[in-house]
Amino acid sequence: MKLSLESEKYLQDLRSYLFTKGVKNEVLDEFIEEAKGHLIEGEQDGKDVHQIFGCNPKEYANDLIVAMGSSLRRQLAIISQIVLIIISYQVSRMGLTDTLSFTLVEIIGYPIVYILFLLFVGFGVRISSFKSKNHQNIILLISIALGMLSMITIFLLNSRIGDPFIELSSMGSIVVTGVFVSVFLLLIQRLLGWFGFISAIALLLFHFFMNNYFL
Amino acid sequence: MSQTQMLKGILEGCILKVISEKEVYGYELATKLHESGFSTVSEGSIYPLLIRMNKEKLIEGTLKKSTAGPNRKYYRLTEKGQKELSQFIINWNILKCGVDKLLKEEEQ
Hints:
The complex is a heterodimer. Helices cover 82% and strands 3% of the residues of chain A. By secondary structure, chain A is mostly helical. In chain A, strands 1-2 form a two-stranded antiparallel sheet. The model of chain A has no long low-confidence stretch (mean pLDDT 90). Chain B is α+β, with helices and mostly antiparallel strands. Chain B has helices at residues 3-21, 26-35, 46-55, 79-107; strands at residues 24-25, 59-64, 72-77. The longest helix of chain B has 29 residues, at 79-107. The radius of gyration of chain B is 16 Å and the shape is elongated. The model of chain B has no long low-confidence stretch (mean pLDDT 88). The A-B interface holds A 1, 27, 30-31, 33-38, 40-42, 44, 47, 51-54, 60, 63-64, 66-69 and B 25-27, 30, 42-45, 47-49, 51-52, 55, 66, 68-73.
């Protein structure tokens, strides 16, 4: 049985809103499954999503958060995990193709802008929940643009102040690359499973062979 | 106090009562409550309560396959839930007697 587009959107918005508030994925999945079943039966009986879940979706979502429990720690853990994946991927890619060296902007600025980007997008998703599709697109576009702007600013700054702050020896570079490759693969495996793990290895090998044999 | 607020306050006890009679899933429970007079409370408002009661181990949920759509979560009462329901019935009777008495005096 298929749900109406309105109900589908309601569930999608509810999921996004609860996720950005730090509700556990397993709890979320279980509830969405249950709510979907309820909506399917309700629609068969001629009810719409607002008759079933009320006219104030944010108030309802906040009631659910109180019952399900959310934590700031979980939100921070998700953000730090994503930032660590991006950074470990960048360092692995650099280390597989060249001797590692880092500017001060790369060491301090890059992690900050990645966090900022995720915060902008996270807030964008939360604010745009339960709004019309057009409003949602505008809010998301603005939040992504703000995130991109902060990233471009820091990349430009890095290209201006390009002097290396830390330069590693060949051996140091191999060791650091090994550590970051391990972190990258471990986090990807945890997040996406073995398929993600194999894809990540393929991606790193692609960079390695492209840079060492073709470029 | 509005009717909705009064109904919400006793909704939890009534959910326990419905579940004590037989295992039910969300939609079935909402329909039963609606038929019993909780028509001003939206059906979805049972879920925050079910999640909290599940956490407090008053009820337990089991997923069962459904031909009508996604798997259904059937709820049953735990021993702790049974005690909670008994307590609710005692409290409700005390409250009901008090209110009935007051309203009767007022009528006379």
